Amino acid sequence: RTSRGKQLEYLLSFPQRFSPEIAYPTLLALPPGEQTRELAQVYEPWFPFFQEQGWVTCCPVVPSNKLFFQGAERYLPYFMDHLESQMYLAGGKFYLFGVSNGGISAFRAATLNPERFHSITVCPGWPKPADVNRLETILNLPVNFLVGDMDTRWRIKSEDFSRKILDMGGDAMLELIPGEGHMAFQTISAARLLQTFMRNVN
User: Fold this and answer.
1) Do 138 and 98 contact (CB within 8 A), yes or no?
2) Where are the extended beta strands (E) located within 1-116?
3) Largest CA distance in the chain
4) Are strands 117-122 and 94-98 parallel, antiparallel or unpaired?
5) Which of 90, 120, 113 has the alpha carbon at shortest distance from 30?
6) I need a labelling partner for 196 at 20 to 30 A (CA). Which of 87, 143, 148, 173 fits?
Protein backbone atom coordinates (compact mmCIF):
# COMPACT_ATOMS: atom_id res chain seq x y z
CA ARG A 1 0.00 0.00 0.00
CA THR A 2 1.08 3.58 -0.65
CA SER A 3 1.32 6.15 2.13
CA ARG A 4 -2.23 7.20 1.19
CA GLY A 5 -3.58 3.68 1.42
CA LYS A 6 -3.80 2.87 -2.30
CA GLN A 7 -3.30 -0.85 -2.82
CA LEU A 8 -1.02 -1.94 -5.68
CA GLU A 9 -1.14 -5.42 -7.17
CA TYR A 10 1.81 -6.88 -9.07
CA LEU A 11 3.27 -10.02 -10.56
CA LEU A 12 6.64 -11.10 -9.20
CA SER A 13 9.02 -13.79 -10.43
CA PHE A 14 12.03 -14.86 -8.32
CA PRO A 15 15.08 -16.94 -9.26
CA GLN A 16 15.27 -20.40 -7.78
CA ARG A 17 16.77 -20.44 -4.27
CA PHE A 18 16.13 -16.72 -3.90
CA SER A 19 17.83 -15.08 -0.93
CA PRO A 20 16.97 -11.57 0.33
CA GLU A 21 20.66 -11.19 1.21
CA ILE A 22 21.82 -11.39 -2.43
CA ALA A 23 21.62 -8.55 -4.99
CA TYR A 24 19.76 -9.57 -8.16
CA PRO A 25 19.36 -7.84 -11.52
CA THR A 26 15.73 -6.77 -11.48
CA LEU A 27 13.41 -6.04 -14.38
CA LEU A 28 10.50 -3.62 -13.98
CA ALA A 29 8.11 -4.52 -16.82
CA LEU A 30 5.18 -2.18 -17.44
CA PRO A 31 2.22 -3.91 -19.12
CA PRO A 32 0.58 -3.01 -22.45
CA GLY A 33 -2.98 -1.99 -23.22
CA GLU A 34 -5.17 -1.15 -20.23
CA GLN A 35 -2.33 -2.39 -17.98
CA THR A 36 -4.60 -4.80 -16.12
CA ARG A 37 -3.53 -8.01 -14.42
CA GLU A 38 -4.53 -10.02 -17.50
CA LEU A 39 -2.33 -7.87 -19.73
CA ALA A 40 0.55 -7.99 -17.24
CA GLN A 41 0.46 -11.76 -17.70
CA VAL A 42 1.59 -11.46 -21.34
CA TYR A 43 5.13 -11.32 -19.95
CA GLU A 44 4.85 -14.62 -18.08
CA PRO A 45 6.31 -16.77 -20.92
CA TRP A 46 9.63 -14.97 -20.34
CA PHE A 47 9.67 -15.58 -16.57
CA PRO A 48 11.30 -19.07 -16.58
CA PHE A 49 14.31 -17.87 -18.60
CA PHE A 50 14.88 -14.88 -16.36
CA GLN A 51 14.55 -17.11 -13.30
CA GLU A 52 17.24 -19.40 -14.70
CA GLN A 53 19.49 -16.41 -15.37
CA GLY A 54 19.13 -15.20 -11.77
CA TRP A 55 16.84 -12.25 -12.46
CA VAL A 56 13.85 -10.92 -10.55
CA THR A 57 10.95 -9.77 -12.75
CA CYS A 58 8.21 -7.50 -11.41
CA CYS A 59 5.17 -6.21 -13.26
CA PRO A 60 2.77 -3.75 -11.55
CA VAL A 61 -0.92 -3.48 -12.41
CA VAL A 62 -2.64 -0.09 -12.56
CA PRO A 63 -4.67 0.45 -9.37
CA SER A 64 -7.39 2.42 -11.17
CA ASN A 65 -8.52 3.26 -14.71
CA LYS A 66 -5.57 5.65 -15.03
CA LEU A 67 -2.61 4.26 -16.96
CA PHE A 68 1.02 4.58 -15.89
CA PHE A 69 1.33 7.70 -18.04
CA GLN A 70 -2.09 9.17 -17.23
CA GLY A 71 -1.67 9.65 -13.49
CA ALA A 72 -0.90 6.18 -12.12
CA GLU A 73 2.83 6.85 -12.61
CA ARG A 74 2.74 8.59 -9.22
CA TYR A 75 2.40 5.17 -7.61
CA LEU A 76 5.53 3.69 -9.21
CA PRO A 77 8.02 5.26 -6.73
CA TYR A 78 6.04 3.67 -3.86
CA PHE A 79 6.13 0.35 -5.69
CA MET A 80 9.88 0.54 -6.29
CA ASP A 81 10.49 1.58 -2.68
CA HIS A 82 8.47 -1.43 -1.52
CA LEU A 83 10.50 -3.84 -3.62
CA GLU A 84 13.79 -2.33 -2.47
CA SER A 85 12.70 -2.77 1.14
CA GLN A 86 12.27 -6.50 0.49
CA MET A 87 15.37 -7.29 -1.58
CA TYR A 88 18.64 -5.98 -3.00
CA LEU A 89 18.86 -4.75 -6.59
CA ALA A 90 22.08 -5.35 -8.50
CA GLY A 91 23.63 -1.93 -8.96
CA GLY A 92 20.84 -0.41 -6.88
CA LYS A 93 18.64 0.13 -9.95
CA PHE A 94 15.95 -1.49 -12.10
CA TYR A 95 16.07 -2.42 -15.78
CA LEU A 96 12.97 -0.82 -17.33
CA PHE A 97 10.84 -2.41 -20.05
CA GLY A 98 7.45 -1.81 -21.62
CA VAL A 99 5.31 -2.78 -24.59
CA SER A 100 2.96 -0.30 -26.34
CA ASN A 101 1.24 1.65 -23.54
CA GLY A 102 3.85 0.07 -21.30
CA GLY A 103 6.53 1.54 -23.54
CA ILE A 104 4.96 4.99 -23.32
CA SER A 105 4.76 4.49 -19.56
CA ALA A 106 8.43 3.52 -19.45
CA PHE A 107 9.43 6.94 -20.76
CA ARG A 108 7.15 8.61 -18.21
CA ALA A 109 8.71 6.58 -15.37
CA ALA A 110 12.27 7.09 -16.58
CA THR A 111 12.11 10.83 -17.23
CA LEU A 112 10.59 11.38 -13.78
CA ASN A 113 12.95 8.98 -11.95
CA PRO A 114 16.07 8.54 -14.12
CA GLU A 115 18.31 7.70 -11.16
CA ARG A 116 16.38 4.47 -10.55
CA PHE A 117 17.12 2.75 -13.86
CA HIS A 118 20.03 1.06 -15.64
CA SER A 119 18.43 1.21 -19.10
CA ILE A 120 15.14 1.67 -20.95
CA THR A 121 13.78 -0.81 -23.50
CA VAL A 122 10.47 -0.39 -25.35
CA CYS A 123 8.86 -2.77 -27.85
CA PRO A 124 7.41 -0.48 -29.04
CA GLY A 125 7.12 2.82 -27.23
CA TRP A 126 7.86 6.53 -27.44
CA PRO A 127 7.72 9.56 -25.14
CA LYS A 128 4.64 11.74 -24.80
CA PRO A 129 5.15 15.54 -25.13
CA ALA A 130 5.64 16.05 -21.38
CA ASP A 131 8.38 13.42 -21.44
CA VAL A 132 9.99 14.86 -24.58
CA ASN A 133 10.54 18.02 -22.54
CA ARG A 134 12.45 15.92 -20.00
CA LEU A 135 14.52 13.78 -22.39
CA GLU A 136 17.74 15.38 -21.16
CA THR A 137 17.21 13.52 -17.86
CA ILE A 138 17.79 10.13 -19.55
CA LEU A 139 20.71 10.95 -21.85
CA ASN A 140 23.04 8.91 -19.62
CA LEU A 141 20.90 5.79 -20.01
CA PRO A 142 20.95 3.31 -22.91
CA VAL A 143 17.55 3.59 -24.62
CA ASN A 144 16.49 0.67 -26.81
CA PHE A 145 13.69 0.94 -29.36
CA LEU A 146 12.42 -2.39 -30.74
CA VAL A 147 9.55 -2.15 -33.22
CA GLY A 148 7.95 -4.20 -35.98
CA ASP A 149 8.82 -2.80 -39.38
CA MET A 150 5.15 -3.11 -40.40
CA ASP A 151 3.91 -1.21 -37.33
CA THR A 152 3.99 2.02 -39.34
CA ARG A 153 2.96 4.70 -36.84
CA TRP A 154 5.02 3.27 -33.99
CA ARG A 155 7.98 2.63 -36.30
CA ILE A 156 8.01 6.26 -37.44
CA LYS A 157 7.78 7.47 -33.83
CA SER A 158 10.59 5.11 -32.81
CA GLU A 159 12.78 6.28 -35.68
CA ASP A 160 12.13 9.93 -34.88
CA PHE A 161 12.80 9.68 -31.16
CA SER A 162 15.81 7.40 -31.41
CA ARG A 163 17.33 9.98 -33.78
CA LYS A 164 16.36 12.82 -31.45
CA ILE A 165 18.05 11.18 -28.46
CA LEU A 166 21.20 10.59 -30.50
CA ASP A 167 21.16 14.20 -31.72
CA MET A 168 20.95 15.32 -28.08
CA GLY A 169 24.08 13.32 -27.27
CA GLY A 170 22.30 10.34 -25.72
CA ASP A 171 22.63 6.60 -26.29
CA ALA A 172 19.79 5.21 -28.42
CA MET A 173 19.51 1.98 -30.40
CA LEU A 174 16.76 1.23 -32.93
CA GLU A 175 16.02 -2.31 -34.10
CA LEU A 176 13.34 -3.05 -36.69
CA ILE A 177 11.80 -6.53 -36.45
CA PRO A 178 11.23 -7.75 -40.03
CA GLY A 179 7.71 -8.70 -41.10
CA GLU A 180 6.12 -7.86 -37.75
CA GLY A 181 3.41 -5.46 -36.66
CA HIS A 182 2.38 -4.12 -33.27
CA MET A 183 2.65 -7.51 -31.54
CA ALA A 184 6.31 -7.90 -32.49
CA PHE A 185 7.27 -8.43 -28.84
CA GLN A 186 5.71 -11.90 -29.02
CA THR A 187 8.40 -12.99 -31.49
CA ILE A 188 11.36 -11.90 -29.35
CA SER A 189 13.12 -14.42 -27.14
CA ALA A 190 13.87 -13.70 -23.50
CA ALA A 191 17.58 -14.26 -24.23
CA ARG A 192 17.54 -11.55 -26.88
CA LEU A 193 15.71 -9.19 -24.54
CA LEU A 194 18.22 -9.75 -21.77
CA GLN A 195 21.09 -8.84 -24.09
CA THR A 196 19.22 -5.68 -25.12
CA PHE A 197 18.47 -4.67 -21.53
CA MET A 198 22.17 -4.85 -20.66
CA ARG A 199 23.50 -3.05 -23.73
CA ASN A 200 26.08 -0.44 -22.70
CA VAL A 201 25.08 -0.69 -19.04
CA ASN A 202 28.07 0.06 -16.83
Assistant:
1) no
2) 10-13, 23-24, 26-30, 56-60, 88-89, 94-98
3) 46
4) parallel
5) 120
6) 87
Over 9-22, what HEC string results?
Answer: CEEEECCCCCCCCC
Whether omega for the bond prior to residue 124 falls within 30 degrees of 0, making it cis, is: yes
Integer distance in angstroms from the first to the last C-alpha of the chain?
Answer: 33
| Strands laid side by side in the 56-60 sheet | 10-13, 56-60, 26-30, 94-98, 117-122, 142-148, 171-177
Residue by residue, pLDDT tens for the chain (202 residues) are 776 777 889 999 999 889 999 999 999 999 999 999 999 999 999 999 999 999 999 999 999 889 999 999 999 999 999 999 999 999 999 999 999 999 999 999 999 999 999 999 999 999 999 999 999 999 999 999 999 999 999 999 999 999 999 999 999 999 999 999 999 999 999 999 999 999 999 7
* pTM over 0.90, yes/no: yes
Cβ pair 78, 3 in contact under 8 A: yes
